[in-house]
Amino acid sequence: MKYLTSIATAALLMFAVNVPSYAGELAKVHEDADVTCMDCHGTDTPTRRGKTSLCKNCHGDQIEIKEFQVEERVVNVHKSPHGEIRCTACHKTHEPSVLYCNDCHQYEVELP
Amino acid sequence: MNKLSMAIALSLLSASSYAANYTKNVDVVVIGSGASGMAAAAAAEEKGLTTVLLEKQANIGGSALYIEGTFAVETEQQKSMYIGLTKDWAYKNHMEFNHGFINGPLMRKWINRSDDSIKWMEEKGVTFHDVRTLFEDGNRTWHIFKDGKGVEFVQKMEQSFTKNGGKIYTETPATELVYKDEKVVGVIAEDGEGDTYTFNAKGGVIVATGGFINNPKMLKKFGIRTDHLIVGPKKGRDGDSIKWWEETGARLEGMKTHLAIGAWLYGKDPNTQLSHPEHTTVYSQMASLLRQPYMWVAKDGKRFIDESQAPLWHNTGPAVERVGNGYFAVFDDNMREYMKTDGIDISHSDWVRVGHKLDLLDEGIEVGQKEGWLVKSNTIEGLAKKMGIDVATFKQTVVDANRYAINGVDEEFPKNRKYVRSMDKPPYFAVKGQNATLITLGGPTTDTDMQVLREKDMKPVGGLYVVGCEVGGVYGDSYNLTLEGMASSFAINSGRFAAEHIAEKMKL
Ligand SMILES: Cc1cc2nc3c(=O)[nH]c(=O)nc-3n(C[C@H](O)[C@H](O)[C@H](O)COP(=O)(O)OP(=O)(O)OC[C@H]3O[C@@H](n4cnc5c(N)ncnc54)[C@H](O)[C@@H]3O)c2cc1C
User: Which residues belong to the signal peptide in this entry (chain B) (predicted)?
Assistant: First the structure.
């Protein structure tokens, strides 16, 4: 039942904003690279968030990024010491990305 | 990229099958990856129980990431420092502090195991670098974690858990218990990517969801103020378990009890005021002013407490609440200079330590005026006006304080004379502070194995355990700060107790 309502809402929203149009840059990058809905969402028509395991199909297990120093610590936001964070916790794709770390920390990091 | 048409969208209405639904058989499900959940999960896997750990947030750790140090008595660390506090002392202290309104046998078991849990954590690689107290000549029971944070503890528990085969699901809140024939036999959960899970738990379900401090509706329902700031995680501790207690007929106790601290910059997120003692910040230094034992004034322009009670949060929190959840810490230019050159007299937890010289104070005074939680004036009248309090009453408060300073006697409250200071060198400053709440402390009554007891007959609900700060019967009406670090210690120990009981049961 929960799924049905969210799908129905999604349908309404899509109608209202006259999709397809992308809110986020990442979506555009993926579209330009011929990535389909299925590739990220597992279905031809998205009913849920992109799956981390599907991100990894193309991007591999670990994307190397620049580390930085905070006090005595070396920080690599792709190697969280607080468990495995799903890709889409930060990379929102259809809306602007946000650094989830900054719920608690104050890092200045630009992310795609 | 396919175009999304209305037709496709509508066709989805029959497409709930797109979402995968997994069923898994395990021994134990632990719900919540905070202090108690991490310990329960690590202990369960260590005992050979197939265990899954569910966490609602994107990261693991909950409030445990914020813990500075944890209680224990009769540890090797204490022995090496000649600290002679005993288990018997701690037990009697806690029973007396709470007037017996707590679960004695469980308290005894926890205190008696507290030293063993320090060793258990160390075996898993957790490090402690000091045993501290927040009080002058206080009881040194507070075993400080690396960097004064629970981060390493959470990491080491995670490593032990996953190395032994445990699986963690983040962004996967438990939504329902499977409750059949008066027994809990599983958990239903849904993850952030839309998959649903049914976990059948042969041994038991350990609820470790950390109470309901992030849920204003529930705070109201149980009589806790909702206008306090919140320290720690801003989401996650949403009281998801309350409905499970209702469903299973659990006996609840202490639902109104919570831990509040009366000293945070007014209207500002308290998480900005936490720091490492060696890396203090403008905001943590400024928050420490709210704990100094000099002059605190309520909205009526009068003092309301012996200010040297500052570290006793269970006294200052309610006192601040009583005067309307806001007060001013007032000081003059002599005190400003003193705090810069001689250092502060009372710690702001272990975030800014006693004796710390406030090198960022002048910068903070500027920031505070800009942000609106600090006022400054060359006259007492001017200060009172900026504070928005009655000028005549405040003037009298200052006149009195200056007399107390000359005589070395606080005529209003029995404050130690070394903290009785004058207010006579302009400019004068007032920092505005308010209460914040860290955690709620009520929940179901349990037996000493952490099994949830039913209201109707005080018998365990089969298969259902509760651990951590949502266990009832650990506190009477407030947190006991004289056993420093007891919240996390109880959480970690109770997590172990539940896992041990399930292991024991499953051997039968
Ligand atoms: C700023 C701060 C400083 C502190 N300092 C100390 C200290 O120095 N010493 C001390 O002893 N104590 C301290 N405490 C208290 C200590 O952190 C808590 O007592 C302890 O973490 C409680 O453990 P818990 O497992 O019950 O809850 P938490 O550690 O809060 O964990 C609960 C977890 O459950 C998750 N959850 C909730 N609902 C669900 C659901 N439906 N499904 C899955 N997961 C769910 C939450 O997201 C959270 O991660 C401090 C607390 C704060 C906030």
Answer: 1-19
The answer to whether residue B394 sits within a structural domain is yes
Q: What is the pLDDT of residues B390-443, one digit of tens each?
A: 999 999 999 999 999 999 999 999 999 999 999 999 999 999 999 999 999 999
The answer to whether residue A8 sits within a structural domain is: no
* Residues B504, B498: Cα–Cα separation, whole Å: 10
Cα separation, B334 vs B423, whole angstroms: 8
Provide the number of structural domains found in chain B: 2
Phi/psi of residue B52, nearest 5 degrees: -115, 150
Segments in B408-485 forming alpha helices (H): none
Does B5 reside within a domain? no
Number of A–B residue contacts, CB under 8 Å: 101
Question: How many angstroms does the Cα of residue B489 sit away from the middle of ligand 1?
Answer: 12
Give the structural domain span for B484.
Answer: 21-220+228-253+441-507
State if residue B174 touches ligand 1 by the CB under 6 angstroms criterion: yes
Q: What percent of chain B has pLDDT over 90?
A: 93
> With an 8 Å Cβ cutoff, are A71 and B276 in contact?
yes
Amino acid residing at A57: N
> Domain of A26?
21-103
Q: How confident is the model at residue B490 (pLDDT cuts 50, 70, 90)?
A: very high
Nearest residue (CA) to ligand 1, atom 48:
B62
Given a cut of 70, the residues of chain A with pLDDT beneath it are 1-24
Any domain includes B44: yes
Decide if A101 contacts A80 (C-beta within 8 A). Answer: yes
> Both B412 and B325 in a single domain?
yes
